[in-house]
Amino acid sequence: MPISLQLFLSFFKVGWFAFGGGYAILPLYEAELAERRGWIKHEEILDVYAVGQSVPGVIAINTATLLGYRVGGRIGGIAAAFGVMLPAYLVILFVAVVLPRFKEYRLVQAALMGIRPAVAALILRASIQLGKKSLLDAITWGVAALTVVLMLFSPVHPAFLIGGAAVLGYGLFLGSRWATKRILRLEGQEA
Amino acid sequence: MNLWQLLASFTKVGFFTIGGGYAMIPLIQRELTSHGWLSSAEFVDILGISEMTPGPLAVNAATFVGYNVASSGGSVWAGIGGAALATLGVALPSLTLMLAVSAAFFRYRNHPGKIVTFHFVRPVVTGLLAVAAVTVATQAFLASGAQWGQDGIRALNPWAVGIFALALLGLLRYKLNPILVISGCAVCGMLALPFLG
To answer: Which residue of chain B has the CA closest to A29?
Structure first.
């Protein structure tokens, strides 16, 4: 099977379960692309995710395009984006055409009552997994803690925090050979 | 009804959706209501449906509005086409922008500058995910019709808390696949229906 078709099917599968907004799809990408397919490493998915949510566009489509590109080039990116969108399109069409009163069915509401806590657990697991790889010393712990505090107690936008961290990191890389060496050693990449 | 207007309008919505999700609701709403495509009440309906169906809010809204606007003449097929056009519109900014930067992003993925940059970006994403988990849990644990701080302990939905614990156990202890966990929890929710009163 051509890689772009495989990508389309993988993202199509994930798309059916993308409940609960931007963050919720991340653990699904990890399970399908890193664990099941082995196409791409966990850390790389998370880096793509940071980029995908800091630029304009729909997060799930941004990340799908980047991940698809990584595995299968331009066509792969397009295939992944359409794959992840198609279930949303089909379900909404079904609701609009066949079930205009969908929202009021109690069985649907009960299913959603079960899905929401599952999504919370999935996102928490993603945070724990990334934390194990990214919180390497007191400074990185401090950055994460500062992020939590700012997000909870100030109206700051997440894209601003990611952008700020990126500027800080690239600034250190340009400005300090010592810091760069130390960080590369921490990341397991001897310079 | 000009179908290109539908495409152009949702391209704008897609471009506005920086950071994604609920922060961009007012922008989407303004774009849709200004064309008279959607009343405020219908927009709230879309939010509700979007929460109960898979996919990003922007895509859900595009499909729904595209269908309703294009099928207003009565044709289901026109509606399906309109929905496709609006959905394509919402995806266009993502597709073009991402394809433009992707080559550069992956060429430098082992560059020391990239590693040092993401050494600081990753802890931020860790923190953002932790906050997102808390935010989603706060909504998930709230009993229907209740309000935090007003209804005391009765605001807590014990079913949701139990399902959360099961999901976490399945994920962390038994390494279950996320898709299995979501499906299983949906079934648990439906099984709880007779007890929900």
So the answer is: B178
Rg (chain B; Cα; Å): 21
% of chain A exceeding 70 in pLDDT: 96
Give me the amino acid identity at A104: E
* Domain boundary residue, one of A107, A134, A161: A134
Query: Nearest residue of B to residue A102 by CA position?
Result: B49
pLDDT digits (tens, 9 = 90+) for A107-165: 888 888 888 899 889 889 888 988 998 999 999 999 999 999 999 998 887 778 888 99
Mean pLDDT of B121-143: 88
- Asked whether residue B173 carries a pLDDT value surpassing 70, the answer given is yes
Query: Tokens 């993401």 appear where?
Result: B118
Q: Name, in order, each residue with C-beta under 8 angstroms of A79's C-beta and a sequence gap of 6 or more.
A: A4, A5, A7, A8, A11, A68, A72
- Same domain? For B22 and B89 the reply is yes
Q: Among B95, B31, B15, which residue's Cα sits nearest to residue A57?
A: B15
Residue B74 banded pLDDT, cuts 50, 70, 90: confident
Cβ atoms of B130 and A127 within 8 Å: the answer is yes
Q: How many CB pairs below 8 Å do chains A and B form together?
A: 393
Last-in-domain residue among B87, B105, B123: B105
Q: Are residues A96 and A122 in the same domain?
A: yes
DSSP helix/strand/coil, A146: helix
Q: Which of B21, B102, B132, B96 is nearest to A44 (CA)?
A: B102
Q: Which chain A residue has its CA at the smallest distance from B189's CA?
A: A114
* B166 shares its domain with B183: yes
* pLDDT tops 90 at residue A174: yes
Residue type, A57: G
Predicted pLDDT at A126: 83
Rounded Cα–Cα distance for residues A91 and B193 (Å): 23
Regarding whether A142 and A121 lie in a shared domain, the answer is no
Which residues on chain B are in Cβ contact (under 8 Å) with A45? none
CB contact under 8 A, A148 and B130: yes
Q: What per-residue confidence (pLDDT) applies to B177?
A: 84
| Total domains present in chain B | 2
ipTM of the complex: 0.82
Query: Are residues A154 and A60 part of one domain?
Result: no
Q: What is the mean pLDDT of residues A50-70?
A: 88
Structural domains in chain A (count): 2
Sign of CA dihedral B135, B141, B146, B147: negative
